[in-house]
Amino acid sequence: MANEEQNAPVEEQEEKTTFKGFIMGLLAFTVVMLAGLILVNTALVNLGLLDEKKGIVNQVISILPFGHSDEEEVTPSQFIETEANTTLYQNTGSFGVFIGIDGSEAARCAGYDLVVIDAQEFTAEQVAQLKAGGATVISYLNVGSMEQSRAYYGDYSGFGLSARDGWPDEVWMDVSQPDWQNYVTGTLAADLVAKGVDGFFLDNTDVYYAYPTDEIYNGLLTIINNLQGYNLPIIINGGDSFVSRGLSTGELTYLIEAICQEDVFTTYDQYKGYSFQSKADTEYYKQYVESCAQQNLLVYIIEYAPDPDTAAMISEYCNARNFQYYISDSILLN
């Protein structure tokens, strides 16, 4: 009996040693497996078989014939193939922007395959006529500022932040305000959809450039997220600071189909009139639009009143990159 009592601590010590060895071995095995996954992931990314932004484990599981990820992620090709988002990708014809006209001037849109109008100034019948003529109709929707001429200005001017530089009859809006978000997405957008538009052309997300706060950024994201409920494609006009942040974080990647950039090569100044864009700004905007294209976004460009040689240069630049462009003789786009 005494021998058994003396042997008990020894046996317990051996069990503890064995268990400790098992744990250490398991940890070593786990470290080796993780290192192997990282090496495999790196190799597959270099081969173009995996997106480096996704998690290693989900990536590996997703390519196994019997595996799946608990959280399916939408890929660009899946996104393009959805019914609502084939509109822009299938339309590679002529592109025109006429946000300065109303329905009585709809004839200005004739001959264009894709037109951007301010459908608040059109009736449903006039939108239907444009579509019957073969046009895809995208409507302007000002989300980041508000013009004094809008019927709802008095109701929402309290959310104004400041006058928009260069546009004295327009104010930047506090897009972090839920009432403004709900009005834009639940009333303005709904009215446009009821008229039969094929998508949204969001303007003045540059409010984030004027007010670069997380509140403004997240407010814009909320508006765009809410617009997803209409299942229509979205083009963001301008807003390079907002778009660049949203693409870098991935928060915007699958929410929009295209960007549009004005003034890549030419510009308009209220005092000097039409002129060439500065070389530095042209290079900046070229890098911006080309980086957007690399992230599977369609690119549209709007230029103002260039001479024939400049127009030819713009055409050559855009055609070489499958960008669509529109050259207007008026800053009012009418």
Question: Tags for this entry?
Answer:
alpha/beta; TIM Barrel; single chain; 334 residues; 12 helices
Summarize the SSE layout with pairings.
Blueprint: H1 2-46, H2 56-63, H3 76-81, H4 86-90, E1 95-98, E2 114-117, H5 124-132, E3 136-142, E4 145-147, H6 153-156, E5 160-164, E6 167-173, H7 178-194, E7 199-203, H8 207-210, H9 214-227, E8 234-237, H10 240-249, E9 258-262, E10 266-269, E11 273-276, H11 279-294, E12 298-304, H12 308-321, E13 324-328
Parallel strand pairs: 1-2, 2-3, 3-7, 7-8, 8-9, 9-12, 12-13
Antiparallel strand pairs: 4-6, 5-6, 10-11
Helix pairs in contact: 7-9
* Spans where pLDDT lies below 50 across 5 or more residues: 48-84
Please identify the structural class as seen in this structure: alpha/beta
Mean pLDDT: 82
The major β-sheet equals: 8 strands, parallel
- Residue share in β-strands: 15-25%
Order of helices and strands: HHHHEEHEEHEEHEHHEHEEEHEHE
Going by CATH, the architecture of the largest domain would be Alpha-Beta Barrel
Total strands: the figure is 13
Count of alpha/pi helices: 12
Please write the CATH class name of the largest domain: Alpha Beta
How far apart are the termini?
Answer: 105 Å
Looking at the structure, the CATH topology of the largest domain is TIM Barrel
Summarize the entry for a quick read:
The protein has 334 residues and is an alpha/beta fold. The chain contains twelve helices and 13 strands.
Structure description:
This protein is α/β, with parallel strands linked by helices and 334 residues long. The protein has 2 domains: 2-63; 77-328, TIM Barrel (Alpha-Beta Barrel). Helix content is 46%, strand content 19%. The protein contains 12 helices and 13 strands. The strands form 3 sheets. The protein has an 8-stranded parallel β-sheet. A 3-stranded antiparallel β-sheet has the order 4-6-5, with no helix packed on it. A hairpin with a 2-residue loop joins strand 5 and strand 6 (167-173). Helix 7 (178-194) packs parallel to helix 9. The longest helix has 45 residues, at 2-46. The radius of gyration is 28 Å and the shape is globular. The termini are far apart. Mean pLDDT is 82; it is low at 48-84.
